[in-house]
DNA sequence: CGCCGATTTGAACTGCTTCAAGCCATGTGG
DNA sequence: CCACATGGCTTGAAGCAGTTCAAATCGGCG
Protein backbone atom coordinates (compact mmCIF):
# COMPACT_ATOMS: atom_id res chain seq x y z
CA UNK A 1 0.00 0.00 0.00
CA UNK A 2 1.50 3.32 -1.10
CA UNK A 3 1.77 6.13 1.45
CA UNK A 4 2.24 9.85 1.63
CA UNK A 5 1.64 10.66 -2.00
CA UNK A 6 0.99 14.27 -1.04
CA UNK A 7 1.13 16.33 2.07
CA UNK A 8 -0.36 19.76 1.49
CA UNK A 9 -1.09 22.16 4.27
CA UNK A 10 -4.69 21.87 5.51
CA UNK A 11 -5.40 25.45 4.56
CA UNK A 12 -4.80 24.58 0.89
CA UNK A 13 -6.72 21.33 0.95
CA UNK A 14 -9.43 20.82 -1.67
CA UNK A 15 -11.94 19.49 0.84
CA UNK A 16 -11.09 22.06 3.52
CA UNK A 17 -14.57 23.61 3.53
CA UNK A 18 -16.66 20.43 3.30
CA UNK A 19 -15.00 17.69 5.37
CA UNK A 20 -15.12 16.98 9.12
CA UNK A 21 -12.55 19.72 9.62
CA UNK A 22 -14.61 22.40 7.87
CA UNK A 23 -15.53 24.26 11.04
CA UNK A 24 -12.04 24.24 12.54
CA UNK A 25 -10.10 27.44 13.06
CA UNK A 26 -6.40 27.84 12.25
CA UNK A 27 -5.27 26.61 15.66
CA UNK A 28 -7.41 23.49 15.42
CA UNK A 29 -6.21 22.80 11.89
CA UNK A 30 -2.65 22.99 13.15
CA UNK A 31 -3.38 20.23 15.64
CA UNK A 32 -4.91 18.04 12.95
CA UNK A 33 -1.98 18.70 10.65
CA UNK A 34 0.37 17.26 13.24
CA UNK A 35 -1.29 13.87 13.32
CA UNK A 36 -2.85 13.40 9.90
CA UNK A 37 -1.30 11.21 7.21
CA UNK A 38 -2.22 10.29 3.67
CA UNK A 39 -2.91 6.93 2.11
CA UNK A 40 -3.47 6.13 -1.53
CA UNK A 41 -5.06 3.16 -3.22
CA UNK A 42 -5.39 1.97 -6.78
CA UNK A 43 -8.76 1.33 -8.42
CA UNK A 44 -10.10 -1.98 -7.19
CA UNK A 45 -7.98 -2.13 -4.02
CA UNK A 46 -9.71 -3.01 -0.80
CA UNK A 47 -9.32 -0.30 1.85
CA UNK A 48 -11.10 -2.04 4.72
CA UNK A 49 -12.70 -5.44 5.18
CA UNK A 50 -16.05 -5.72 6.97
CA UNK A 51 -15.49 -7.06 10.47
CA UNK A 52 -11.84 -6.07 10.61
CA UNK A 53 -10.52 -3.78 13.24
CA UNK A 54 -10.48 -0.18 12.07
CA UNK A 55 -7.04 1.20 12.82
CA UNK A 56 -7.82 4.59 11.32
CA UNK A 57 -10.57 6.93 10.21
CA UNK A 58 -10.34 9.64 7.59
CA UNK A 59 -11.71 11.68 4.74
CA UNK A 60 -11.75 11.01 1.02
CA UNK A 61 -9.55 13.68 -0.57
CA UNK A 62 -9.66 12.53 -4.18
CA UNK A 63 -11.31 9.62 -5.96
CA UNK A 64 -14.34 7.49 -5.14
CA UNK A 65 -14.80 4.50 -2.87
CA UNK A 66 -17.70 2.10 -2.37
CA UNK A 67 -19.16 0.85 0.87
CA UNK A 68 -20.55 -2.63 0.34
CA UNK A 69 -21.85 -5.76 1.97
CA UNK A 70 -21.53 -9.29 0.57
CA UNK A 71 -23.74 -12.27 1.28
CA UNK A 72 -22.16 -15.72 1.51
CA UNK A 73 -23.53 -16.83 -1.85
CA UNK A 74 -21.78 -13.99 -3.65
CA UNK A 75 -24.56 -11.44 -3.87
CA UNK A 76 -23.22 -7.94 -3.26
CA UNK A 77 -24.95 -4.70 -2.34
CA UNK A 78 -23.12 -1.40 -2.60
CA UNK A 79 -24.72 0.53 0.26
CA UNK A 80 -22.97 3.83 -0.28
CA UNK A 81 -20.59 5.83 -2.41
CA UNK A 82 -17.82 7.82 -0.77
CA UNK A 83 -16.85 10.91 -2.70
CA UNK A 84 -14.33 13.64 -1.83
CA UNK A 85 -14.97 15.12 1.65
CA UNK A 86 -16.92 12.05 2.80
CA UNK A 87 -15.78 10.45 6.03
CA UNK A 88 -14.63 6.85 6.31
CA UNK A 89 -14.91 4.95 9.55
CA UNK A 90 -16.52 5.91 12.78
CA UNK A 91 -15.35 6.88 16.20
CA UNK A 92 -16.56 4.59 18.92
CA UNK A 93 -16.57 1.47 16.77
CA UNK A 94 -13.78 -1.05 16.86
CA UNK A 95 -14.71 -2.98 13.74
CA UNK A 96 -15.82 -1.89 10.31
CA UNK A 97 -19.45 -2.68 9.47
CA UNK A 98 -18.88 -2.72 5.68
CA UNK A 99 -16.23 -3.35 3.07
CA UNK A 100 -14.58 -0.21 1.70
CA UNK A 101 -13.14 -0.49 -1.81
CA UNK A 102 -11.44 2.06 -4.02
CA UNK A 103 -13.60 2.46 -7.13
CA UNK A 104 -11.00 4.70 -8.75
CA UNK A 105 -7.57 5.93 -7.69
CA UNK A 106 -8.20 7.08 -4.16
CA UNK A 107 -6.47 9.24 -1.57
CA UNK A 108 -7.54 9.41 2.05
CA UNK A 109 -6.55 11.89 4.74
CA UNK A 110 -6.26 9.62 7.76
CA UNK A 111 -6.03 9.75 11.54
CA UNK A 112 -5.32 6.89 13.86
CA UNK A 113 -8.59 6.09 15.55
CA UNK A 114 -7.72 6.45 19.22
CA UNK A 115 -5.97 9.85 18.93
CA UNK A 116 -8.80 11.08 16.73
CA UNK A 117 -11.34 10.15 19.36
CA UNK A 118 -9.35 12.05 21.97
CA UNK A 119 -9.18 15.07 19.68
CA UNK A 120 -12.90 14.92 19.07
CA UNK A 121 -13.60 15.19 22.77
CA UNK A 122 -11.60 18.40 22.88
CA UNK A 123 -12.77 19.91 19.62
CA UNK A 124 -16.54 20.23 19.50
CA UNK A 125 -16.22 21.75 16.04
CA UNK A 126 -15.21 18.36 14.76
CA UNK A 127 -17.87 16.33 16.53
CA UNK A 128 -20.58 18.83 15.59
CA UNK A 129 -19.60 18.63 11.96
CA UNK A 130 -19.41 14.85 12.13
CA UNK A 131 -22.92 14.69 13.56
CA UNK A 132 -24.16 16.95 10.79
CA UNK A 133 -22.47 14.86 8.11
CA UNK A 134 -23.78 11.66 9.62
CA UNK A 135 -27.33 12.99 9.66
CA UNK A 136 -26.97 13.93 5.99
CA UNK A 137 -25.68 10.47 5.15
CA UNK A 138 -28.57 8.93 7.04
CA UNK A 139 -31.03 10.93 4.95
CA UNK A 140 -29.17 9.90 1.80
CA UNK A 141 -29.23 6.23 2.81
CA UNK A 142 -32.97 6.44 3.43
CA UNK A 143 -33.55 8.21 0.13
CA UNK A 144 -31.70 5.37 -1.54
CA UNK A 145 -34.07 2.90 0.11
CA UNK A 146 -36.85 4.46 -1.98
CA UNK A 147 -34.85 3.74 -5.11
CA UNK A 148 -34.16 0.14 -4.11
CA UNK A 149 -37.61 -0.61 -2.75
CA UNK A 150 -39.94 1.11 -5.17
CA UNK A 151 -38.35 2.10 -8.45
CA UNK A 152 -38.18 0.37 -11.84
CA UNK A 153 -34.86 -0.43 -13.49
CA UNK A 154 -35.19 2.62 -15.75
CA UNK A 155 -35.88 4.89 -12.79
CA UNK A 156 -33.01 3.44 -10.78
CA UNK A 157 -30.44 4.07 -13.48
CA UNK A 158 -31.77 7.58 -14.08
CA UNK A 159 -31.75 8.26 -10.33
CA UNK A 160 -28.15 7.14 -10.08
CA UNK A 161 -27.00 9.33 -12.94
CA UNK A 162 -28.90 12.29 -11.53
CA UNK A 163 -27.38 11.84 -8.09
CA UNK A 164 -23.84 11.54 -9.43
CA UNK A 165 -24.39 14.65 -11.56
CA UNK A 166 -25.70 16.51 -8.52
CA UNK A 167 -22.76 15.57 -6.32
CA UNK A 168 -20.30 16.33 -9.08
CA UNK A 169 -21.84 19.75 -9.58
CA UNK A 170 -21.66 20.45 -5.87
CA UNK A 171 -17.94 19.73 -5.75
CA UNK A 172 -17.21 22.18 -8.55
CA UNK A 173 -16.97 25.82 -7.69
CA UNK A 174 -18.43 27.05 -10.99
CA UNK A 175 -21.72 25.73 -12.41
CA UNK A 176 -21.09 22.87 -14.87
CA UNK A 177 -21.18 23.56 -18.61
CA UNK A 178 -24.16 22.32 -20.61
CA UNK A 179 -24.20 19.63 -21.68
CA UNK A 180 -22.75 18.37 -18.41
CA UNK A 181 -20.16 15.67 -19.09
CA UNK A 182 -19.33 13.27 -16.33
CA UNK A 183 -17.08 10.34 -15.57
CA UNK A 184 -19.03 7.42 -14.12
CA UNK A 185 -17.24 6.43 -10.95
CA UNK A 186 -18.36 2.78 -11.16
CA UNK A 187 -18.19 -0.14 -13.55
CA UNK A 188 -21.49 -1.55 -14.84
CA UNK A 189 -21.18 -4.33 -12.33
CA UNK A 190 -20.65 -1.96 -9.39
CA UNK A 191 -23.55 0.19 -10.60
CA UNK A 192 -25.71 -2.93 -10.74
CA UNK A 193 -24.64 -3.85 -7.22
CA UNK A 194 -25.53 -0.36 -6.06
CA UNK A 195 -28.90 -0.34 -7.86
CA UNK A 196 -30.00 -3.86 -6.95
CA UNK A 197 -30.01 -4.94 -10.61
CA UNK A 198 -27.89 -7.09 -12.91
CA UNK A 199 -25.16 -5.52 -15.00
CA UNK A 200 -27.03 -6.50 -18.16
CA UNK A 201 -30.09 -4.57 -17.07
CA UNK A 202 -27.99 -1.51 -16.26
CA UNK A 203 -26.39 -1.66 -19.69
CA UNK A 204 -29.78 -1.96 -21.40
CA UNK A 205 -31.28 0.92 -19.45
CA UNK A 206 -28.31 3.16 -20.16
CA UNK A 207 -28.83 2.36 -23.82
CA UNK A 208 -32.52 3.12 -23.53
CA UNK A 209 -31.87 6.48 -21.87
CA UNK A 210 -29.42 7.33 -24.63
CA UNK A 211 -31.93 6.32 -27.32
CA UNK A 212 -34.51 8.51 -25.57
CA UNK A 213 -32.14 11.46 -25.88
CA UNK A 214 -31.70 12.08 -22.16
CA UNK A 215 -28.01 11.23 -22.20
CA UNK A 216 -25.21 10.29 -24.60
CA UNK A 217 -22.75 7.46 -24.01
CA UNK A 218 -19.47 9.16 -24.88
CA UNK A 219 -17.20 6.33 -23.80
CA UNK A 220 -17.44 3.29 -21.59
CA UNK A 221 -17.14 5.24 -18.39
CA UNK A 222 -18.15 8.67 -19.59
CA UNK A 223 -21.53 10.20 -20.43
CA UNK A 224 -23.09 13.56 -21.26
CA UNK A 225 -26.38 14.73 -19.89
CA UNK A 226 -28.08 16.11 -22.98
CA UNK A 227 -31.50 16.74 -21.45
CA UNK A 228 -31.41 17.20 -17.66
CA UNK A 229 -35.17 17.74 -17.45
CA UNK A 230 -35.82 14.53 -19.33
CA UNK A 231 -33.39 12.66 -17.09
CA UNK A 232 -35.10 14.10 -14.01
CA UNK A 233 -38.46 12.97 -15.34
CA UNK A 234 -37.08 9.47 -15.84
CA UNK A 235 -36.12 9.21 -12.15
CA UNK A 236 -39.79 8.94 -11.18
CA UNK A 237 -39.23 11.34 -8.31
CA UNK A 238 -41.06 14.36 -9.30
CA UNK A 239 -43.56 15.36 -11.91
CA UNK A 240 -42.22 18.92 -11.69
CA UNK A 241 -41.77 20.00 -15.31
CA UNK A 242 -39.06 22.56 -16.03
CA UNK B 1 -54.08 15.75 19.18
CA UNK B 2 -54.07 14.46 22.76
CA UNK B 3 -51.38 15.75 25.11
CA UNK B 4 -49.82 14.94 28.41
CA UNK B 5 -51.07 11.39 28.78
CA UNK B 6 -48.34 10.75 31.29
CA UNK B 7 -45.63 12.72 32.98
CA UNK B 8 -43.33 10.46 34.95
CA UNK B 9 -40.07 11.62 36.37
CA UNK B 10 -37.18 10.96 34.01
CA UNK B 11 -35.52 8.68 36.54
CA UNK B 12 -38.46 6.27 36.29
CA UNK B 13 -38.78 6.44 32.52
CA UNK B 14 -38.77 3.16 30.61
CA UNK B 15 -36.32 4.42 27.99
CA UNK B 16 -34.09 6.18 30.50
CA UNK B 17 -31.06 4.01 29.74
CA UNK B 18 -31.36 3.82 25.94
CA UNK B 19 -32.59 7.20 24.63
CA UNK B 20 -30.68 10.43 23.87
CA UNK B 21 -30.72 11.18 27.59
CA UNK B 22 -29.10 7.90 28.61
CA UNK B 23 -25.75 9.43 29.51
CA UNK B 24 -27.17 12.35 31.48
CA UNK B 25 -26.56 12.69 35.20
CA UNK B 26 -29.25 13.71 37.70
CA UNK B 27 -28.62 17.43 37.25
CA UNK B 28 -28.88 17.18 33.49
CA UNK B 29 -32.03 15.11 33.70
CA UNK B 30 -33.55 17.80 35.88
CA UNK B 31 -32.97 20.35 33.13
CA UNK B 32 -34.58 18.13 30.55
CA UNK B 33 -37.50 17.45 32.85
CA UNK B 34 -38.25 21.16 32.99
CA UNK B 35 -38.77 21.53 29.27
CA UNK B 36 -39.97 18.13 28.10
CA UNK B 37 -43.60 17.41 27.27
CA UNK B 38 -45.50 14.36 26.09
CA UNK B 39 -47.59 13.85 23.00
CA UNK B 40 -49.74 10.88 22.12
CA UNK B 41 -51.11 9.66 18.83
CA UNK B 42 -53.55 6.98 17.78
CA UNK B 43 -52.62 4.24 15.34
CA UNK B 44 -52.65 5.64 11.83
CA UNK B 45 -52.25 9.27 12.84
CA UNK B 46 -49.67 11.34 11.04
CA UNK B 47 -47.07 12.83 13.40
CA UNK B 48 -45.10 14.87 10.87
CA UNK B 49 -45.46 15.56 7.17
CA UNK B 50 -42.36 15.48 4.95
CA UNK B 51 -41.33 19.03 4.10
CA UNK B 52 -43.16 20.59 7.03
CA UNK B 53 -41.35 22.64 9.57
CA UNK B 54 -40.30 20.55 12.54
CA UNK B 55 -41.46 22.39 15.64
CA UNK B 56 -40.20 19.70 17.97
CA UNK B 57 -37.90 16.73 18.32
CA UNK B 58 -38.27 13.85 20.73
CA UNK B 59 -38.03 10.21 21.67
CA UNK B 60 -40.48 7.36 21.20
CA UNK B 61 -41.54 6.29 24.70
CA UNK B 62 -44.12 3.65 23.78
CA UNK B 63 -45.50 2.34 20.51
CA UNK B 64 -44.07 2.21 17.00
CA UNK B 65 -43.92 4.80 14.23
CA UNK B 66 -42.90 4.57 10.59
CA UNK B 67 -40.66 6.90 8.62
CA UNK B 68 -41.76 6.93 5.00
CA UNK B 69 -41.48 8.64 1.66
CA UNK B 70 -44.22 8.78 -0.98
CA UNK B 71 -43.79 9.24 -4.71
CA UNK B 72 -46.36 11.30 -6.61
CA UNK B 73 -47.96 8.26 -8.21
CA UNK B 74 -48.78 6.72 -4.85
CA UNK B 75 -45.84 4.38 -4.39
CA UNK B 76 -44.68 4.39 -0.77
CA UNK B 77 -41.44 3.27 0.83
CA UNK B 78 -41.18 2.88 4.59
CA UNK B 79 -37.54 3.82 5.16
CA UNK B 80 -37.40 3.18 8.86
CA UNK B 81 -39.22 1.94 11.94
CA UNK B 82 -39.11 3.98 15.12
CA UNK B 83 -39.35 1.88 18.26
CA UNK B 84 -39.16 2.94 21.93
CA UNK B 85 -36.02 5.01 22.65
CA UNK B 86 -35.56 5.97 18.99
CA UNK B 87 -35.21 9.67 18.26
CA UNK B 88 -37.56 11.62 15.99
CA UNK B 89 -36.42 14.73 14.21
CA UNK B 90 -33.01 16.26 13.97
CA UNK B 91 -31.32 19.29 15.36
CA UNK B 92 -30.06 21.67 12.70
CA UNK B 93 -32.82 20.92 10.21
CA UNK B 94 -35.81 23.15 9.78
CA UNK B 95 -37.96 20.77 7.76
CA UNK B 96 -38.70 17.08 8.09
CA UNK B 97 -37.20 14.89 5.36
CA UNK B 98 -39.78 12.11 5.77
CA UNK B 99 -43.34 11.46 6.87
CA UNK B 100 -43.68 10.13 10.40
CA UNK B 101 -46.80 8.06 11.11
CA UNK B 102 -47.96 6.27 14.23
CA UNK B 103 -48.15 2.55 13.39
CA UNK B 104 -49.69 1.78 16.76
CA UNK B 105 -50.73 3.91 19.72
CA UNK B 106 -47.71 6.13 20.21
CA UNK B 107 -46.30 8.39 22.91
CA UNK B 108 -43.41 10.76 22.33
CA UNK B 109 -41.30 12.63 24.85
CA UNK B 110 -40.83 15.97 23.09
CA UNK B 111 -38.71 19.10 23.22
CA UNK B 112 -39.23 22.25 21.23
CA UNK B 113 -36.48 22.28 18.65
CA UNK B 114 -34.75 25.59 19.36
CA UNK B 115 -34.41 25.11 23.13
CA UNK B 116 -33.24 21.55 22.56
CA UNK B 117 -30.49 22.76 20.25
CA UNK B 118 -29.36 25.22 22.88
CA UNK B 119 -29.35 22.48 25.50
CA UNK B 120 -27.32 20.23 23.23
CA UNK B 121 -24.58 22.82 22.95
CA UNK B 122 -24.28 22.84 26.72
CA UNK B 123 -24.69 19.14 27.36
CA UNK B 124 -22.12 17.11 25.43
CA UNK B 125 -23.60 13.97 26.96
CA UNK B 126 -26.65 14.51 24.80
CA UNK B 127 -24.88 15.32 21.56
CA UNK B 128 -22.44 12.44 22.02
CA UNK B 129 -25.28 10.03 22.54
CA UNK B 130 -27.16 11.46 19.57
CA UNK B 131 -24.10 10.98 17.37
CA UNK B 132 -23.81 7.39 18.55
CA UNK B 133 -27.49 6.71 17.90
CA UNK B 134 -27.30 8.34 14.49
CA UNK B 135 -24.31 6.21 13.51
CA UNK B 136 -26.23 3.10 14.58
CA UNK B 137 -29.24 4.16 12.54
CA UNK B 138 -27.00 4.78 9.56
CA UNK B 139 -25.64 1.24 9.81
CA UNK B 140 -29.18 -0.09 10.13
CA UNK B 141 -30.34 1.88 7.09
CA UNK B 142 -27.43 0.50 5.08
CA UNK B 143 -28.11 -3.03 6.27
CA UNK B 144 -31.67 -2.58 5.07
CA UNK B 145 -30.36 -1.60 1.64
CA UNK B 146 -29.00 -5.15 1.35
CA UNK B 147 -32.49 -6.50 2.01
CA UNK B 148 -34.08 -4.20 -0.56
CA UNK B 149 -31.42 -4.53 -3.20
CA UNK B 150 -30.45 -8.16 -3.09
CA UNK B 151 -32.91 -10.38 -1.26
CA UNK B 152 -35.82 -12.51 -2.50
CA UNK B 153 -39.35 -12.00 -1.18
CA UNK B 154 -38.96 -14.97 1.16
CA UNK B 155 -35.69 -13.63 2.55
CA UNK B 156 -37.10 -10.13 2.97
CA UNK B 157 -40.05 -11.29 5.04
CA UNK B 158 -37.82 -13.55 7.15
CA UNK B 159 -35.33 -10.70 7.62
CA UNK B 160 -38.09 -8.39 8.79
CA UNK B 161 -39.43 -10.88 11.32
CA UNK B 162 -35.93 -11.58 12.59
CA UNK B 163 -35.18 -7.89 13.02
CA UNK B 164 -38.43 -7.21 14.86
CA UNK B 165 -37.77 -10.19 17.13
CA UNK B 166 -34.25 -8.95 17.80
CA UNK B 167 -35.35 -5.44 18.70
CA UNK B 168 -38.19 -6.73 20.79
CA UNK B 169 -35.81 -9.00 22.71
CA UNK B 170 -33.43 -6.11 23.27
CA UNK B 171 -36.15 -3.97 24.87
CA UNK B 172 -37.07 -6.70 27.35
CA UNK B 173 -34.96 -7.08 30.44
CA UNK B 174 -35.31 -10.84 30.66
CA UNK B 175 -34.65 -13.19 27.73
CA UNK B 176 -37.86 -13.97 25.81
CA UNK B 177 -39.61 -17.30 26.39
CA UNK B 178 -39.43 -19.98 23.73
CA UNK B 179 -41.34 -19.97 21.53
CA UNK B 180 -41.01 -16.20 21.29
CA UNK B 181 -44.42 -14.65 20.59
CA UNK B 182 -44.49 -11.24 19.06
CA UNK B 183 -46.96 -8.58 17.96
CA UNK B 184 -46.27 -7.39 14.44
CA UNK B 185 -46.06 -3.62 14.58
CA UNK B 186 -47.23 -3.16 10.99
CA UNK B 187 -50.16 -4.10 8.76
CA UNK B 188 -49.44 -6.29 5.72
CA UNK B 189 -49.54 -3.19 3.58
CA UNK B 190 -47.02 -1.29 5.73
CA UNK B 191 -44.77 -4.36 5.82
CA UNK B 192 -44.95 -4.51 2.04
CA UNK B 193 -44.05 -0.83 1.82
CA UNK B 194 -41.10 -1.45 4.10
CA UNK B 195 -39.93 -4.54 2.22
CA UNK B 196 -40.40 -3.21 -1.30
CA UNK B 197 -43.04 -5.86 -2.08
CA UNK B 198 -46.80 -6.02 -2.58
CA UNK B 199 -49.05 -6.90 0.32
CA UNK B 200 -50.13 -10.06 -1.49
CA UNK B 201 -46.54 -11.28 -1.71
CA UNK B 202 -45.98 -10.56 1.99
CA UNK B 203 -49.08 -12.54 2.86
CA UNK B 204 -48.01 -15.48 0.69
CA UNK B 205 -44.50 -15.54 2.14
CA UNK B 206 -45.77 -15.40 5.71
CA UNK B 207 -47.96 -18.36 4.84
CA UNK B 208 -45.00 -20.17 3.29
CA UNK B 209 -42.79 -19.57 6.37
CA UNK B 210 -45.60 -20.92 8.55
CA UNK B 211 -46.01 -24.00 6.32
CA UNK B 212 -42.24 -24.53 6.56
CA UNK B 213 -42.52 -24.59 10.36
CA UNK B 214 -40.36 -21.54 11.02
CA UNK B 215 -43.22 -19.51 12.49
CA UNK B 216 -46.89 -19.83 13.41
CA UNK B 217 -49.54 -17.25 12.51
CA UNK B 218 -51.36 -16.95 15.82
CA UNK B 219 -53.61 -14.07 14.83
CA UNK B 220 -53.67 -11.43 12.13
CA UNK B 221 -51.04 -9.32 13.81
CA UNK B 222 -49.41 -11.84 16.07
CA UNK B 223 -46.92 -14.63 15.36
CA UNK B 224 -44.77 -17.15 17.22
CA UNK B 225 -41.24 -17.99 16.23
CA UNK B 226 -41.25 -21.78 16.43
CA UNK B 227 -37.82 -22.38 14.92
CA UNK B 228 -35.44 -19.41 15.26
CA UNK B 229 -32.60 -21.23 13.50
CA UNK B 230 -34.84 -22.02 10.57
CA UNK B 231 -36.05 -18.43 10.41
CA UNK B 232 -32.44 -17.20 10.50
CA UNK B 233 -31.55 -19.55 7.66
CA UNK B 234 -34.46 -18.15 5.63
CA UNK B 235 -33.08 -14.61 5.88
CA UNK B 236 -30.26 -15.48 3.50
CA UNK B 237 -27.77 -13.67 5.72
CA UNK B 238 -25.70 -16.37 7.10
CA UNK B 239 -25.04 -20.00 6.39
CA UNK B 240 -24.05 -20.43 10.05
CA UNK B 241 -25.84 -23.58 11.13
CA UNK B 242 -26.91 -23.80 14.77
C1' DC C 1 -1.31 -7.90 -33.66
C1' DG C 2 -3.73 -10.41 -30.49
C1' DC C 3 -5.37 -11.07 -25.95
C1' DC C 4 -8.41 -9.76 -22.03
C1' DG C 5 -11.70 -7.56 -19.30
C1' DA C 6 -15.63 -4.66 -19.74
C1' DT C 7 -19.71 -3.99 -22.20
C1' DT C 8 -23.53 -4.81 -25.30
C1' DT C 9 -27.00 -7.62 -27.35
C1' DG C 10 -30.13 -11.64 -27.78
C1' DA C 11 -33.54 -15.02 -26.30
C1' DA C 12 -35.77 -17.98 -22.94
C1' DC C 13 -37.27 -18.25 -18.29
C1' DT C 14 -39.22 -16.99 -13.67
C1' DG C 15 -40.51 -14.62 -9.38
C1' DC C 16 -43.10 -11.12 -8.36
C1' DT C 17 -46.89 -8.09 -9.59
C1' DT C 18 -51.44 -7.28 -11.08
C1' DC C 19 -56.08 -7.91 -11.14
C1' DA C 20 -59.89 -10.23 -9.16
C1' DA C 21 -62.46 -12.90 -5.81
C1' DG C 22 -63.37 -14.58 -1.43
C1' DC C 23 -62.73 -14.72 3.66
C1' DC C 24 -63.00 -13.34 8.42
C1' DA C 25 -63.55 -10.41 12.42
C1' DT C 26 -65.51 -6.32 14.04
C1' DG C 27 -68.79 -2.90 14.37
C1' DT C 28 -73.32 -0.64 13.41
C1' DG C 29 -78.00 0.31 12.69
C1' DG C 30 -82.59 -1.52 11.97
C1' DC D 1 -79.97 -10.21 17.41
C1' DC D 2 -79.40 -10.41 12.77
C1' DA D 3 -78.26 -8.11 8.06
C1' DC D 4 -74.78 -5.97 6.20
C1' DA D 5 -71.05 -2.71 5.68
C1' DT D 6 -65.97 -2.25 6.35
C1' DG D 7 -61.01 -3.03 6.61
C1' DG D 8 -57.42 -6.18 6.83
C1' DC D 9 -56.07 -10.42 5.08
C1' DT D 10 -55.76 -14.67 2.04
C1' DT D 11 -55.96 -17.07 -2.27
C1' DG D 12 -55.96 -17.74 -7.35
C1' DA D 13 -54.57 -17.05 -12.15
C1' DA D 14 -52.41 -14.42 -15.88
C1' DG D 15 -48.87 -11.16 -17.36
C1' DC D 16 -44.51 -9.01 -17.46
C1' DA D 17 -40.13 -6.71 -15.86
C1' DG D 18 -35.97 -8.14 -14.92
C1' DT D 19 -32.94 -12.24 -14.55
C1' DT D 20 -30.24 -15.85 -16.51
C1' DC D 21 -27.47 -17.91 -19.74
C1' DA D 22 -25.00 -17.33 -23.93
C1' DA D 23 -22.58 -15.12 -27.50
C1' DA D 24 -20.85 -11.13 -29.96
C1' DT D 25 -18.43 -6.66 -29.84
C1' DC D 26 -15.57 -3.08 -28.14
C1' DG D 27 -11.50 -0.84 -26.38
C1' DG D 28 -7.12 -0.89 -24.27
C1' DC D 29 -2.61 -2.45 -23.70
C1' DG D 30 1.59 -5.41 -23.81
From TrEMBL, chains A, B:
<dbReference type="InterPro" id="IPR036390">
    <property type="entry name" value="WH_DNA-bd_sf"/>
</dbReference>
<keyword id="KW-0805">Transcription regulation</keyword>
<dbReference type="InterPro" id="IPR012318">
    <property type="entry name" value="HTH_CRP"/>
</dbReference>
<dbReference type="InterPro" id="IPR050397">
    <property type="entry name" value="Env_Response_Regulators"/>
</dbReference>
<dbReference type="InterPro" id="IPR018490">
    <property type="entry name" value="cNMP-bd_dom_sf"/>
</dbReference>
<dbReference type="Pfam" id="PF00027">
    <property type="entry name" value="cNMP_binding"/>
</dbReference>
<feature type="domain" description="Cyclic nucleotide-binding">
    <location>
        <begin position="20"/>
        <end position="137"/>
    </location>
</feature>
<dbReference type="GO" id="GO:0003677">
    <property type="term" value="F:DNA binding"/>
</dbReference>
<dbReference type="InterPro" id="IPR014710">
    <property type="entry name" value="RmlC-like_jellyroll"/>
</dbReference>
<dbReference type="InterPro" id="IPR000595">
    <property type="entry name" value="cNMP-bd_dom"/>
</dbReference>
<protein>
    <submittedName>
        <fullName>CRP/FNR family transcriptional regulator, anaerobic regulatory protein</fullName>
    </submittedName>
</protein>
<dbReference type="Pfam" id="PF13545">
    <property type="entry name" value="HTH_Crp_2"/>
</dbReference>
<dbReference type="GO" id="GO:0003700">
    <property type="term" value="F:DNA-binding transcription factor activity"/>
</dbReference>
<feature type="domain" description="HTH crp-type">
    <location>
        <begin position="151"/>
        <end position="229"/>
    </location>
</feature>
<keyword id="KW-0238">DNA-binding</keyword>
<dbReference type="GO" id="GO:0005829">
    <property type="term" value="C:cytosol"/>
</dbReference>
<dbReference type="InterPro" id="IPR036388">
    <property type="entry name" value="WH-like_DNA-bd_sf"/>
</dbReference>
<keyword id="KW-0804">Transcription</keyword>
Amino acid sequence: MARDPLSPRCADCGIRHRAVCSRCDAAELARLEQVKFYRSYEAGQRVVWAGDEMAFVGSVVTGVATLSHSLEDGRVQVVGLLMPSDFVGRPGRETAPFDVTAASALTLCCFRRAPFERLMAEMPHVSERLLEMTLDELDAARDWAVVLGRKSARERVASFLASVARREAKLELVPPPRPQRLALPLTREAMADHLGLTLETVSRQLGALARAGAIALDAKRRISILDPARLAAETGDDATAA
